[in-house]
Sequence to fold (372 residues):
Amino acid sequence: MDVQKVLYMVGGSGETSYAANSKIQEKAILTITPMLEEAIGEIYRNLLPEKMVVADLGSSSGPNTLVVLSKVIKIISNQCLRSGQQPPEMLFFLNDLPNNDFNNIFQSLNNGEESVRAEKGSISVPHFVAGLPGSFYGRLFPRQSVQFFHSSYSLMWISQVPKEIGDKRNGMPLNKGNIYIGKTSPPLVVKLYQEQFHRDFSHFLKLRFDELVPCGQMVLSFLGRNKENILDGELSTIWGSVAESLDSMVREGLVEEEKLDTFNLPFYAPSAAEVETIVNLQGLFDIIHFHTFESNLDPFHDLDDNVVFDNVQSGANCAKVIRSVLEPMIASHFSSAIVDDLFSRFATHVANHLLKEKLKLPVLALLLKKKE
Ligand code: SAH
Fold:
């Protein structure tokens, strides 16, 4: 699987698009807003920049990247009001892999800018927005040229599926029946995924360290794991339901078994301890804050909602969220012909699961500051 080519969210703004199905991710951005305020406020006060470069890494094609952009502008505007200083000129880079639907963001940008203007009241912050296609596991900017990086719901996507996961052992695919780390995955699969994440995340930190100006900061939030047992992690349950839905299609002859055996996600949900260890081992950033929180996979219910809810409707809501993320990868590896059937099976699976427990998405959120 060439991750750079097949990893992108469903484009456009139609019913199955990421743009129309990214409410949970928006909630995460609202949750980390105090971190944004602290980081941007401190950068502004320390550097009083005349020009400021900010990048959103893994911006995708939905409205959330513009939520981040307007929040950053509002924070700067408030800082200028308080200090009486002229606002800096700001340059925003929206980064994602080359197949991302950048056009969809830029077409909706006018509306976004209007809402920024309406919100900020008296101080207008001049700003420019550019798209930046490329992997955040490679260099994206010149040395010491960026004041602030933001990235949400992106860093759990690793740069590649570890090659050996596709190998066979005694004629059997190493990760038979799974598309990620699942209950029946052998320890080697766990080790390979873990090592890939460690390599990728360490590399990401080094690259961003080089690109940030002194005193630069980053707010990163991404999916992780709360469960102690890695085989039983929250995302293993969700991807396990996709695997079982695919397996039921194999049994009915709708999907080739070999196709399922060779499909593994370029994804890893780390624990908070793993992430903290990598940041500390690298030694390039101070962890200013590290929070974890959970969202419900169903965007229309919060985890603490105790109302009697319709599990079938909720299963369908969850399936739309997952479809908007996985569809391009599924269509490229299997065929676009299986997508409707697959996600309708997945919705039923989830509906049944919801009779036992809600499906939770644990999010890890960090504010990191470049060491002097
Ligand atoms: N930040 C947005 C979008 C999250 S979806 C939000 O919070 O709603 C995750 C995005 O990360 C996808 O668009 C995916 O293409 C992008 N992504 C994954 N790996 C990437 C990489 N190596 N480089 C750049 N973008 C990547």
About this structure: Residues 36 and 219 are 7 Å apart (CA to CA). The first strand starts at residue 51 and ends at 57. The mean pLDDT is 89.
